Model the fold of this input.
Amino acid sequence: MDDLTRASEYTEPAGADTHWVEHLRVPAMSLGTYSIRAGGLDEQTPHAQDEVYVVISGRAGFESGGTRVEVGPGSALFVPALEVHRFLDVTEDLTVVVLFAPAESTDA
Done:
């Protein structure tokens, strides 16, 4: 068993608008925390894996596949592999738990 409690904690980005912390990696999946400061830019690029985002705290817009939604605590989103997506208009520091399946890689 791995205790993943820290996955719900905001991590202040240092020298950037975003910060990523990986908490778990096995071949079938990986899990981490994506933190974006209020007013920050999310410049992520599409991933080669399917993703599930669960917003723990903060507020922002989210755009994926040409659709935009507003997100806040409790929002859960699925993004298929290779789909362009990003958080926009972050109005409160954002803490997001991210699950990649299979485990995240840099291939896209």
In short: The chain has one domain: 18-101. The domain at 18-101 is CATH 2.60.120.10 (Jelly Rolls). The radius of gyration is 13 Å. Strands lie at 18-26, 29-36, 50-64, 67-71, 76-79, 85-101.
